[in-house]
Amino acid sequence: MDLLDLFFPDQAQAAHLREIAAHTKALSVNEIRGRKRDEAAAEDLAFLALVLLGLIESLVAKNLVTREELTAQLRGLGALDATQDSRARLQVLRHALGLPPAAEPRPRKPVRIVRAKRK
Question: Computed over its alpha carbons, how large is the radius of gyration of the chain?
């Protein structure tokens, strides 16, 4: 508790409410940015799925591969990372392509609220 709280409780309360509002606004801005990133990633994933579907349909239409062969191949590749979950981690793909491992993403710094000094 500082002297402002003791002698001017209404002003102190208003200052605390402004601080809470600024903090809440910063959090909501970060949430909005996070949602936009999630939506962009979902759009990218949907586009890649469409590209893959087009490639698969083209390969099947040209009789270069059958769906059964492709399914068997994907099951075998899914086991490369020692799991049978019909997925492959990106590290496995990078290794298969002879690429170095991806760098670990840097952690984001938390948003810091700075109170303006009063004169």
Answer: 27
Count CB atoms within 10 A of the CB of residue 26. Answer: 14
| 12 vs 7 pLDDT, higher one | 12
CB 91 within 8 A of CB 101: yes
Query: Model pTM greater than 0.90?
Result: no
Output the six-digit token pair for 17: 């409410």
* Measured distance CA(100)–CA(34) in Å, rounded: 28
Q: State pLDDT tens for residues 82-113.
A: 666 767 777 877 887 788 887 766 666 666 66
Q: How many Å apart are CA 104 and CA 97, to the nearest integer? A: 19
- C-alpha dihedral over 20, 26, 32, 35, to 10 degrees? -100
